[in-house]
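DATA SHEET
Item: assembly model
Revision: 1
Owner: S.N.
Input lines:
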Amino acid sequence: MDTNVLFIFILSIFIGFEVISKVPSMLHTPLMSGTNAIHGIILFGGILVLADAATPLARTLGFVAVIFGSANVFGGFMVTDRMLQMFKKKKK
Amino acid sequence: MSSTIALIIIGVAVLFIIGIKLLASPKTARLGNLVAAAGMLVALLTLHKPTGEYVWSQGWTINYTLIAIGTVIGLVIGAIGAYSVKMTAMPQMVALFNGLGGGAAALVASLEFIKPDRVITTFIAVAMLFATLIGSLSFSGSIIAYLKLEGKFEKPHTFPGQNILNGLILLVILGLCGWLAFNASAGNATTAFIVMFLLALFFGIAMVMPIGGADMPVVISLLNSFTGLAVAADGFAINNLAMVVAGTLVGSSGTLLTLLMCKAMNRPVTNVLFGAFGSGGGGGKAGGGDLGGKTVKPIQADEAALLLGYAQQVVIVPGYGMAVAQAQHQVRELSDELGKRGVEVRFAIHPVAGRMPGHMNVLLAEANVPYDQLCEMEAINPTMDRVDVCLVIGANDVVNPAAREDKSSPIYGMPIIDADRAKTVIVMKRSMAAGFAGIENLLFYKDNTRMLFGDAKASLQTLITQLKAS
């Protein structure tokens, strides 16, 4: 493990704090939902382990991980979009 | 890792950061979500194995067929969940998706850990153990949070010594993790690992069960950031930078969001997690004595309609009751009707009204209430003295003056919307049942308060009809 990854990790912590500190509370639910979709990137983790799976057990668990991750990422972005498409200004 | 891949990953990270940033403003929020989704797509198309090979150029094996099938199944589950869920059930859906993400994070780490003849450093072992522990407790905890919001065992489940028992379980889990970190290749490591996994699943349940339904938003937000951290740890474990960045961003922003939510309720996060607030035990009696012989004053819909129709300034305070009654469209209709008569209508949104921060905004947005009519608590409170009628629709604890006046109240010190400062307060409520905190609401007994009993949707419909007729 090279220290570059740790470096990126630490910087990401600060960026995460910085980008959300100015969010109005009305957008907290969509924000939670949106960040929830972003951690759906775990789908790729599932894909990577399943691609190299060599035993039936690894295949089964990897398959479940891919389903879970895929539901997380697709469902997450879609439900966030559904929430946000309703935040429209009234047409006068 | 070639420099091209590194550049692409930087691009992906930037897309995620810009996405979250855009999500922070109502005008650009939808675009922000799409930008983040675009980042995800780029990351998928450029996915590389830890060893540096491009995932999609390997020979097509049974594993790839399974990847394709699994992704499609997840896509279908996600789409059905996202598009069929009612707006009022949104928080549950987020909890569920979050739980699935946590479960996936735990499985990925587990598979890497129990993989035969792998060689890992202690650092990587710790990352895997962390992802397994946090991911699985996020999985089981989110399922419990989901069930609680669905109305199953909504009340906190507590018993004496519960925190001590949970603490002991956590100690055992941490002990196992500590041992496994240095003995990852020992003969009985897999057994110890499975025990740790199961205990972590159980700990997720034990952690969320004692927490009342009213605190579920905080719990979901916390578990969301947990899953983010688990994903980041997985990124370390399988050497995927995009996962480290995305997971960490979610972990830190989710932690901050959780703290903001606790701040809005004026309670430290430890109090939410270990206080078993909302049990109604001690809180139920608080303030009861002062009420003495005071009674509430009911009002009929026709009189309420008159009060509203001839007011200059009306503030509507929506709460979870509005969500339950699905009354957001009637609320908007009422507000439009009043607007036509020259009444200035504003909505006062408490940061923790409903089951999630922003829950009310989402519902009102669904009903096409323009967001410049929505005011945050801090903005509206200084103007409450000039308000003629404050209409409270299914909100309870967030307008309870006990938070200001009654030092013995469990919610003392929580910031509230000062509904009682309006000239007249009309509270729409189904019955005199207490709110989630399980305490009496002093507002109902104030001299300027009138209670309009009944289902919020039906009452609003009557109000609208009366207004149109007059």
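QC remark: Chain B has four domains: 1-46, 54-84, 88-279, 284-469.
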